[in-house]
Specification:
280 residues; alpha/beta; 9-stranded mixed β-sheet; 37% helix
Length: 280
């Protein structure tokens, strides 16, 4: 089985619609794909309705969090989308996206970048985020590609045009996902090219809160980092996943570029108390 447990659609900051994403997953030879848009479940229905025969969909979301002053992402799988506490937090996270994005655009304009809020909004078919701002910056010619925006020069955490956002405490995020019947996996935990990362001791705190696993095989983890994470996961009794973090044309990674072992996927499904994968 080929299993990719981290992808994004136009419901957040991907460029494929949920229907296009599941069709693309089947064309890429995947057996299982998880839809994990940022802080939203808006794409679940469309993805489920469009499932090609034989492809299995795992519903999920990537929740924006913070721990020890460091931004991070928590993948939640197969949780109840109507559980009120987690639903309320997702609403807060999404509601903060528009004023934050407008504030970033305002800072960029002060720095001489001729990006407009109207164009950013056009690019964001779903929930607006920094990748949409980066895409608008590319169009102005001030940077060569989207990744160039995520530096201290521009909109990376701590960058000249950075604006803080509402983020949930990561330990609380784990508890909310688990209380909603889901499974919690720390996304790309040591992706240092994105900025500061948490310590191994902090990951231990997340385990105490109920963390199920860590995403190990990811485009932003080199081989030594993957080896370190696997050793840590063994010590802490965590599941280890692999996935593409696919965003369509917004990133260079491909569906199925990294995958999860079938036995790990089966354990995630077994631990879920609310949702079940759906097969087309």
């Amino acid at each position: 089985m080929r299993i990719d447990l981290h992808t994004h659609s136009t419901a957040s900051d991907g460029t494929d619609t949920p229907a296009e994403l599941v069709r693309g997953a089947a064309a890429a030879g995947l057996d299982v794909v998880a839809l994990t848009d940022h802080d939203t479940v808006a794409g679940w229905r469309e993805a489920t309705a469009a499932l090609p025969p034989g492809l299995t969909l795992v519903t999920g979301a990537e929740i924006s969090c913070r721990l020890d002053g460091i931004s991070l992402h928590m993948l939640g799988y197969l949780f109840d989308p109507d559980e009120p506490e987690l639903a309320r937090e997702r609403d807060l996270l999404r509601d903060d996206r528009v004023p934050r994005a407008k504030a970033i655009v305002a800072k960029l304009r002060e720095l001489g970048v001729p990006v407009t809020w109207e164009r950013v909004r056009e690019l964001a078919q779903g929930a607006v985020g920094r990748p949409h701002i980066a895409a608008a910056m590319v169009e102005t010619g001030v940077i060569p590609d989207v990744s160039a925006a995520f530096t201290s020069e521009w909109i990376a955490d701590g960058g000249r045009a950075h604006v803080e956002k509402h983020e949930l405490d990561a330990r609380a995020a784990v508890r909310l996902i688990r209380n909603a019947g889901g499974v919690a996996v720390f996304a790309h935990p040591l992706a240092s090219r994105r900025g500061r990362v948490v310590s191994e001791e902090a990951i231990g705190e997340l385990v105490a809160a109920g963390l199920d696993g860590v995403e190990v095989d990811h485009m932003d983890h080199d081989t030594p980092t993957r080896d370190r994470l696997r050793a840590l996961a063994r010590d802490l009794g965590l599941l280890t996943t692999g996935s593409s973090d696919y965003h369509g044309t917004r990133k260079t990674c491909l569906l199925g570029e990294n995958t999860t072992a079938p036995e790990v996927y089966e354990e995630i499904v077994a631990r879920a108390k609310a949702g079940r994968p759906v097969t087309g």
